[in-house]
Amino acid sequence: MSNPASINGGSAVAMVGKDCVAIACDLRLGNQSLGVANNFEKVFQFGHVFLGLTGLATDVITLNETFRFKTNLYKMREERDIEPETFANLVSTSLYEKRFGPYFVGPIVAGINSKTNQPFICSFDSIGCIDYSKDFAVVGTASDQLYGMCEGLYEPNLSPDDLFETISQALLNANDRDALSGWGAAVYIITKDKISKRYLKSRQD
Amino acid sequence: MNGINVDINHLKKGEVNLGTSIMAVKFDGGVILGADSRTTTGAYIANRVTDKLTQVHGTVWCCRSGSAADTQAVADIVKYHLELYEAQHGAPPTTKIAASLFQELCYNNKDALTAGIICAGYDDKEKGAIYSIPIGGSIHKQEYAIAGSGSTFIYGYCNKNFKSNMTRDETVEFIKTSLSQAIKWDGSSGGVIRMVVLTASGVERLVFYPEDYVNA
Amino acid sequence: MAGLSFDNHQRNQFLSAKGFGSPKATSTGTTIVGVKFEGGVVIAADTRATSGPIVADKNCEKLHRLSPTIWCAGAGTAADTEMVTQLIGSNLELHAMSTERKPRVVTALTMLKQHLFKYQGHIGAYLIVGGVDPTGAHLFSIHAHGSTDIGFYQSLGSGSLAAMAVLESNWKEGLTKEEAMKLCTEAIEAGIWNDLGSGSNVDLCVMEVGKDAQLYRNYLKPNVREAKVKSYKFARGTTAVLKESIYNLVDIEETVVPMEVDTEA
């Protein structure tokens, strides 16, 4: 509890399916054990790339704005949206710039490359080390629980509908074992031409 | 730090150290430097065949003790300056010039450095010369010099057995026996004994393996 | 903008003082080794990344390219090994272009050690640098504080003791390429099995004089996960949904049609 990244609480998870990716987060914002808000979304969209940001809420907000600024500039210079792989490197360098005064965040990136149609997910530590993954990526105060859920539930090549059930159950059940995560959840299922966003019914304690 | 008492214990946790037994001895033809070959990180021997004798220019060399990173950085800087010196003056630098550079770097950065250096060499002006530059950045011209953690064990031996104007072979034997005792009693020293002989005829390198020196 | 920013440092110090310490960075618990052979050098690494007791990545890449013929294995803070390696890799390429010469291993070594020394150990990168250049084959190791070592064989990381035990007992003079590859693999395996911070697979990179470097990603995979016997797929509709919104991504094409303008009158 003496970690800035676990004052406000929150977790996020991303998964790869067949020609699709999913990214999900809880909705809680707290002050230590006191729940403060149940509408604090931790997944942000930049073009067709999605960024999950957990950790210290002030840094979550700051970084979301930073990346909105940077991706907008990127779009103007390149006249196209940023691709997930490129965005992952942008996140990495932006975090490492603050190597000796880090943002207390745990980011994950998910998206489908619009040129190659390859699904892409990865996660980062607070100083920008990229952890590329072929199956799932987890961050936040329930990351230990999420690792366990994902290792158990995940299987490759799930269809968008099956992937939704798997990622939702992984997140929901992990959150139920974390006092600092929960209070609702949001799940994005991303395919090359469709994005669906669902709010899940979850425990409110 | 109040300028008088320098706390060297706050420096560098968990870094590579040259526990070290090093020495340099003048003899009739020039100078010989000697060193053990052990580097440690805590209790682990990170390198058992280290070369702590570093060339900074031609027949001007140094023995390094203390932090491996610090002494390598200092030696690299001195090496750079001496190369520049020769290019600008058209003549090789003397041992004294090299030693002065070491001294200045070690004194000016004493708060940041853990470096005990013996600078020794042969030049046409001074022939053999030895300068000891211990941790605070002072400089001492000596007939022979010993340094490093292992040197504490051989102060008496060296004091009794050093003679001016020994022959080359006598000097090699003197260093070999001295360092073999330092290695024997100091846990931070060990491995092979490396030497370099600096004379008018140039550089000669020697290595003695444990079986060559245990009974020296 | 350029370089590292210390903007958040004071805030984080304040947080530390209030009892909110720093979060843990991903560290490559790691076993890395390097061995020279007749006409080249090979370096190898395990593929486990850890964050405290958690295995953060089961198959990460710890072999980094500094130039096409100079590679580097990294242990310590994962972000630091990655970033320092990318930075020196870039500078090495710029240096090679301005000097119109192939990059040398000693150049990479000097740039790395001077950079790390400048940061006094705060950049936690422990590296084994191996490579070939017009001068021949070379193998070095670098510690975070900026000290370097040279040798026929090197090992670094939390599994370096296990690896060094193998290297010290099986290394001999005049190894062939195949023997060096086998020795490296066995040394890394010693780390994988006996060191908790190391695990999963063996990555290997062979650099031979006069040839391009060859990267053998997952050269050995002694820890393949058994396929699940049962499916844990949920029945559709298991998860209760409160609200759903669907966004269809469509291509928007804009065509500009010039208006007819009456130029008369």
- Any idea how many domains of chain B? 1
Major β-sheet annotation of chain B: 6 strands, antiparallel
What share of the residues of chain B does DSSP label as strand, in percent? 25-35%
Alpha carbon gap, first and last residue of chain B: 44 Å
Structural class by sheet pairing and helices of chain B: alpha+beta
CATH architecture of chain B: 4-Layer Sandwich
Q: Which sequence of strands runs across the widest sheet of chain A? A: 10-1-2-11-12
CATH architecture designation of chain A: 4-Layer Sandwich
* Class from secondary-structure proportions of chain A: alpha+beta
Describe the global form of chain B: globular
Q: How many helical elements of chain A?
A: 4
What is the oligomeric state here?
A: heterotrimer
CATH class descriptor of chain A: Alpha Beta
Helix content of chain B: 25-40%
Task: Report the helical percentage of chain A.
Answer: 25-40%
Catalytic activity (chain B): Cleavage of peptide bonds with very broad specificity
Active site (chain B): 20
Subunit structure (chain B): Component of the proteasome complex.
InterPro entries (chain B): Ntn_hydrolases_N, Pept_T1A_subB, Proteasome_bsu_CS, Proteasome_sua/b, Proteasome_suB-type
Structural commentary:
Chain A has one domain (7-192): Glutamine Phosphoribosylpyrophosphate, subunit 1, domain 1, CATH 3.60.20.10. Chain A is α+β, with helices and mostly antiparallel strands and 205 residues long. In chain A, β3 (29-31) and β4 (34-37) form a beta hairpin. Chain A has four helices and twelve strands. Chain A starts with 10 loop residues before the first strand and ends in a 5-residue tail after the last strand. The model of chain B is unreliable at 1-8 (pLDDT under 50). In chain B, the strands form three sheets. In chain B, strands 1, 6, 7, 8, 9 and 10 form a six-stranded antiparallel β-sheet that branches. Chain B has a five-stranded antiparallel β-sheet with strand order 11-2-3-12-13. A two-stranded antiparallel ribbon of chain B has the order 4-5. Chain B has one domain (22-212): 4-Layer Sandwich (Glutamine Phosphoribosylpyrophosphate, subunit 1, domain 1), CATH 3.60.20.10. Chain B starts with 16 loop residues before the first strand and ends with a helix. With 216 residues, chain B is an alpha+beta fold. Chain C has helices at 9-17, 78-99, 105-118, 160-170, 177-194, and strands at residues 27-28, 32-37, 40-46, 49-51, 54-57, 63-67, 70-77, 125-133, 136-142, 148-150, 153-156, 202-208, 214-220, 241-248. The longest helix of chain C is centred in the middle third of the chain and has 22 residues, at 78-99. The relative contact order of chain C is 0.18. Chain C has five helices and 14 strands. In chain C, α2 packs across α3 (105-118). Chains in contact: A-C, B-C. The interface between A and C is large, with 52 and 52 residues. Chain C: It holds the Pfam family Pr_beta_C. Chain C: This is Proteasome subunit beta. Chain C: It catalyses: Cleavage of peptide bonds with very broad specificity.
